[in-house]
Amino acid sequence: MSDLTFPAGFLWGGALAANQAEGGYREGGKGLTTVDMIPHGAARMPVKLGLEKRFSLRDDEYYPSHEAIDFYHRYKEDIALMAEMGFTVFRTSIAWSRLFPRGDEPQPNAEGIAFYRSLFEECKKYGIEPLVTLCHFDVPMHLVVEYGSWRNRKMVDFFARYARTCFEAFDGLVKYWLTFNEINILLHSPFSGAGLVFEEGENQHQVKYQAAHHELVASALATRIAHEVNPANQVGCMLAGGNFYPWSCKPEDVWAALEKDRENLFFIDVQARGAYPAYAARLFREKGVTLEMADQDAEILKHSVDFVSFSYYASRCASAEMNEQNSSAANVVKSLTNPHIKRSDWGWGIDPLGLRITMNMMYDRYQKPLFLVENGLGAQDKVEADGSINDDYRISYLREHIRAMAQAIDDGVPVMGYTTWGCIDLVAASTGEMSKRYGFVYVDRDDLGRGSLARSRKKSFWWYKKVIASNGRDLGA
Length: 477
Description:
Layout: E1 11-15, H1 18-21, H2 44-48, H3 71-85, E2 89-93, H4 96-99, H5 110-125, E3 129-135, H6 141-147, H7 154-169, E4 176-180, H8 190-194, H9 204-229, E5 234-240, E6 244-246, H10 251-273, H11 280-287, H12 297-301, E7 307-311, E8 316-318, E9 342-343, E10 349-350, H13 352-366, E11 370-374, H14 392-410, E12 415-421, E13 441-443, E14 455-457, H15 459-469
Parallel strand pairs: 1-2, 1-12, 2-3, 3-4, 4-5, 5-7, 6-8, 7-11, 11-12
Antiparallel strand pairs: 9-10, 13-14
Helix pairs in contact: 3-5, 7-9, 13-14
């Protein structure tokens, strides 16, 4: 038993995203979405980065999101497994194009609303609080083709209508909301992050930051609407977290790390503080960015979030000499390889202390409760002859990160809860692989979509059940 404690009422659970789990990509009236256009294989990264335009599907490619792990048909079975582990919170997302297939309709798709009502009611049946992301790397393709996605100001109104629909349709079922998942990934993976595709010769910084402004205004509007619909609603922003360490104590490296941190925190600075940070003026000037802002935008942005949520998988390293050749290709957020920490099978640094550092920094900066909504280890799992899966490496990773989170709480950081990423194996957003597994529950599915989709419990399933039952005190194997 650990001497570290978690507060009473701490929310324990897991997380997934509609686009990586649901499948049923044209069922129930759902429209095509950005992730449906991202193939498995060599073309995946150019499409994700917005460098290769994909406005139609191809017969010669495999699209992992189209069936994913079939959560759309199996959610009752999957939620029962979560309840067996003792989840008190389940983070998922709503696929925008299930409610508004094209994105710009005046009225929502009733079938889509019925699906999510049933999903959230199933959670409530087991005493599980849904934590719901409105936009998790998921833009209706019609909005991309017709309007240029978030580069267009009209998106703010479309998103506000969608958000209001969600808050009203699921009032009484959902009280914890997130606006945009890992909003800072817009800068690093523009198509998967925000549906952006670039034209030859245009200033990509201008496009990305203008799109970011529209998302920030939309997020603030959604926050205001959520509080209008029900003052008990709590709305958070969501950051792809992880501090940048200076490569050395050379002042230029320290400055490079600070700038890299600001690049990622820029969005949360606006969402948590209600205004653009002072450093934005120089940032925009140096990148040749001139934001178009409506007269009311500054007032709208004042509707700041109630809490700050974030993902944490790894810390990062930066130096003044960073370039494409010396930075890791393991993640869209580029980093130098830290020689002082171990790495996962996919090259991501394993750094539990980095979580404590990140959490202290974020609370020092924002003074709002934190919610760790993604944390996990992508690894290859082996199914033994007897069907068991002994994922001790995953248990070790999660144990050390839970300890670090407890230490941050002991440091005085208020933390609402913890949802591990990919509580059930799902399609990896970065690579499109099923073999990059995160879950406590194994899904029989391979990288090319073959397999029965049958679910089975890993060793970590039973371990996490004990963690939850003890409110984080029992972290033993």
